């Protein structure tokens, strides 16, 4: 049966039908739809497949490793920068090894459509010494789930599955197979205790598996050779294959690469019958660097490092065609009456009232800085508010405000969303409390994870208790309702707490207007 | 035969519903289809677009190449010109004529309409048409109706069936209202084309 699926949905359905027992994830573009699809799938509900959102990528990775320890198949999903958050657990999962199949899905975002950087998750797979699968299309994304779980169990190692935005968020028809049964409960019997003595043995075992991983890549149906005449050999990685085929059709002289470590022999064979290699890969020049090492000095390897393809940004049919020496058609001149239309906070959004109040109060303090965080409210950096001085990574608002306050900056203000606070803000707040840092923290609580489309937020209804538990003084935990009519009260409280020399937390709380509208609609449909 | 279409507008205007309907129609008729969407940050009132590729042969790239699009279908006149580099010289723009102004530096409206007229475009006040046929939220269906005759690889009837399927779970009234808006778009669009 064929189904029209987003790349993300193909991953999700492929996992369910491969006998998945649990998906663990924190929302992040472009990976969010995987978990959402599993949450709403009838078979997943019937089987009770775990799919509730996790607090962050590290808790997700560890829970998935625990499910694997118990013998069942688990999937962890995140956007690329989530790999940084779970890196401790991920890298060590290669040392412990796995029991039930474990796939770590990283959704990379070349061109930073909705991200802070364009780091390439293939580096993480290489760093941890585990295989990486990189589907070129939706069908492969589906098929690689069963293939990846089998490979993971055969090697006893986690597998990284890397997708990019253009695959994650593109639909195509996928041939769907019958669902397989889940694995039975059968916990590992070896010790996963990474004390130095055990870790050294386990690390050596991982090193000894490298040949088997190379062999798997060499034998893989996903690393195929397409021979044609030509002096330039092409290494087409992941979705780059599609752009090459679009430009050259059956004239492409290439090795398609969708499984790592690299299939060295296939690459050497192509190099031997050509004068040069052109590496086409979405993301960073991972393969280009590796192939230079593989072929040695003197053999010409072209790609992003040589300027044949742009050094940054995603691949397109146009930049690939150009690298292949194909002429493109004549284009219309750019429009004259055209202005940029950046994203902005919704009309009626509570974050707007928070920024209006902050700007009003902080106008009296010319030396102030506001350290921002990741979510819809990052848009407070843009006009009309232009309130933020920084946005770096999940949770950095509180800790950067603390560091700046330690240096003597006043007022030092942090603004963070509810979901980001539980993801990575709580530990930083504890540091600030222990140091009695002079900071004002605004937890702008809209009762959801808004930016990614309104997923449940782990700390809903718990924020006052969390702050008190971390040691913020009760009289300096203040809750307000961000509405224009409450502006006098909000600005008064902000001013009081900025003037307080210590840690204060202000929680403006009003539901996201997008989820509010959705809930109202659902209610109407039910009645 | 193939048809490459860029759908565009402002986040929240309903371009993904248009994409869903064309996707459904293409699947029902057994065409190959690829449809790249934009999710995430850009959906918040910023410019959004979707690349739709329909073909009787297998399709490789998820993205349309420059000068490759046969059709730009836009919910907003300025947005229809954002992707001009992707429009084939033989291509066509089908757009709403009514600006959606949510930025301080929106271009002069008269100059914008004038520039659109120099391009191979048809435009219509789809919001007024959808209000006139009693479905104020159906502007995107009016636009799809306008574009229908130019999609070519799918018939108007294919698209009507897909609308019925996609909206079926919302009830017969919603299906009827959307079909009415779509039909009005087909009729008005042809009027616009013949006047040119």
What does this structure look like?
The complex is a heterodimer of chains A (527) and B (196). Chain A folds into three domains: 207 residues, Thiamin diphosphate (ThDP)-binding fold, Pyr/PP domains (Rossmann fold, 3-Layer(aba) Sandwich); 99 residues, Rossmann fold (3-Layer(aba) Sandwich); 166 residues, Rossmann fold (3-Layer(aba) Sandwich), CATH 3.40.50. Helices cover 41% and strands 16% of the residues of chain A. Chain A has 21 helices and 18 strands. The mean pLDDT of chain B is 93. A six-stranded mixed β-sheet of chain B has the order 2-3-1-4-5-6. In chain B, helix 4 crosses helix 5 and helix 6 runs antiparallel to helix 7. Chain B is of the alpha/beta class and 196 residues long. The interface between A and B is large, with 50 and 53 residues.
Number of strands of chain A: 18
For the record, what CATH class of chain B applies?
Alpha Beta
Q: Approximately how much helix is present in the residues of chain A?
A: 40-55%
As a percent range, the share of strand residues of chain B is: 15-25%
* CATH fold field value of the largest domain in chain A: Rossmann fold
CATH architecture of chain B: 3-Layer(aba) Sandwich
Number of beta-strand segments of chain B: 6
Order of helices and strands of chain B: EHEEEHEHEHHHH
Q: What count of helical segments of chain A does DSSP give?
A: 21
Fold-level CATH name of chain B: Pyruvate-ferredoxin Oxidoreductase, domain 3
State the low-pLDDT regions of chain B, or none. none
Please give the domain count of chain B: 1
End-to-end distance of chain A: 36 Å
**Average of the residue pLDDT scores of chain A:** 97
Question: What form of chain B results from the Cα inertia axes?
Answer: globular
* Average pLDDT figure of chain B: 93
Structural class, from secondary structure content of chain B? Answer: alpha/beta
């Amino acid at each position: 049966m064929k189904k029209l699926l987003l790349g993300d949905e193909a991953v999700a359905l492929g996992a369910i039908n491969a006998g998945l027992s649990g998906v663990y994830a924190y929302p992040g573009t472009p990976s969010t739809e995987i978990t959402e699809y599993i949450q709403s799938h009838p078979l997943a509900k019937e089987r009770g497949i775990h799919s509730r959102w996790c607090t962050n990528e590290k808790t997700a990775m560890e829970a998935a490793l625990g499910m694997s320890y118990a013998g069942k198949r688990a999937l962890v999903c995140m956007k690329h920068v989530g790999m940084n958050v779970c890196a401790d657990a991920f890298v060590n999962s290669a040392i412990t090894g796995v029991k039930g199949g474990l796939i770590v899905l990283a959704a990379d975002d070349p061109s930073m459509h909705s991200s802070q950087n364009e780091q390439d998750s293939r580096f993480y797979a290489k760093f941890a010494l585990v295989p990486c699968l990189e589907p070129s299309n939706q069908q492969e994304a589906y098929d690689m789930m069963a293939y990846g779980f089998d490979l993971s169990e055969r090697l006893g190692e986690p597998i990284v599955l890397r997708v990019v935005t253009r695959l994650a968020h593109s639909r195509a028809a996928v041939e769907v197979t019958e669902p397989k049964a889940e694995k039975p409960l059968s916990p590992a019997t070896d010790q996963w205790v990474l004390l130095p003595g055990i870790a050294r043995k386990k690390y050596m075992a991982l090193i000894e598996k490298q040949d088997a991983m190379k062999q798997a890549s060499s034998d893989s149906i996903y690393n195929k050779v397409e021979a044609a005449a030509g002096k330039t050999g092409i290494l087409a990685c992941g979705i780059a294959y599609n752009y090459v085929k679009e430009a050259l059709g059956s004239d492409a002289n290439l090795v398609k690469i969708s499984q790592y470590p690299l299939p060295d022999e296939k690459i050497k064979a192509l190099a031997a019958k050509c004068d040069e290699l052109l590496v086409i890969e979405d993301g960073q020049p991972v393969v280009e660097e590796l192939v230079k090492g593989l072929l040695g000095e003197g053999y010409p390897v072209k790609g992003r490092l040589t300027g044949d393809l742009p050094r940054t940004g995603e691949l397109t049919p146009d930049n690939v065609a150009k690298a292949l020496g194909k002429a493109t058609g004549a284009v219309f001149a750019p429009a004259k009456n055209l202005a940029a239309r950046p994203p902005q906070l919704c009309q009626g959004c509570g974050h707007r009232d928070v920024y209006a109040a902050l700007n009003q109060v902080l106008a009296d303090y010319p030396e102030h800085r506001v350290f921002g965080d990741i979510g819809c409210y990052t848009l407070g950096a843009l006009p009309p508010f232009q309130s933020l001085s920084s946005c770096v990574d999940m949770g950095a608002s509180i800790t950067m405000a603390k560091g700046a306050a330690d240096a003597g900056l006043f007022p030092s203000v942090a603004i963070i969303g509810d979901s980001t606070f539980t993801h990575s803000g709580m530990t930083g707040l504890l540091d600030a409390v222990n140091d009695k840092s002079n900071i004002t923290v605004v937890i702008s609580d809209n009762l959801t994870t808004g930016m990614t489309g309104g997923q449940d937020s782990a700390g809903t209804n718990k924020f006052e208790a969390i702050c008190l538990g971390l040691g913020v003084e009760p009289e300096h935990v203040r809750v307000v309702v961000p509405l224009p009519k409450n502006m006098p009260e909000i600005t008064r409280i902000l001013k009081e707490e900025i003037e307080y020399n210590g840690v204060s937390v202000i929680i403006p709380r009003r539901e996201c207007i997008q989820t509010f509208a959705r809930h109202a609609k659902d209610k109407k449909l039910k009645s | 035969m193939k048809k490459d279409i860029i759908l565009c507008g402002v986040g929240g205007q309903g371009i993904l519903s248009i994409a869903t309907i064309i996707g459904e129609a293409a699947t029902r008729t057994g065409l190959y289809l690829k449809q790249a969407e934009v999710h995430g940050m850009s959906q918040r009132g910023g410019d959004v677009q979707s690349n739709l590729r329909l073909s009787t042969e297998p399709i490789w790239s998820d993205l349309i190449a420059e000068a490759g699009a046969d059709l730009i279908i836009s919910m907003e006149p300025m947005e229809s010109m954002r992707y001009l580099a992707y429009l084939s010289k033989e291509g066509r723009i089908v757009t709403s004529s009514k600006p959606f102004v949510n930025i301080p530096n929106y271009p002069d409206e008269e100059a914008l309409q004038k520039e659109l007229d120099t391009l191979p475009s048809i435009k219509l006040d789809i919001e007024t048409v959808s209000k006139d046929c009693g479905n104020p939220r159906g502007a995107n269906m009016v636009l799809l109706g306008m574009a229908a005759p130019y999609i070519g690889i799918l018939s108007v009837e294919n698209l009507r069936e897909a609308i019925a399927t996609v909206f079926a779970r919302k009830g017969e009234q919603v299906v009827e209202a959307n079909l009415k808006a779509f039909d009005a778009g087909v009729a008005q669009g042809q009027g616009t084309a013949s006047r040119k």
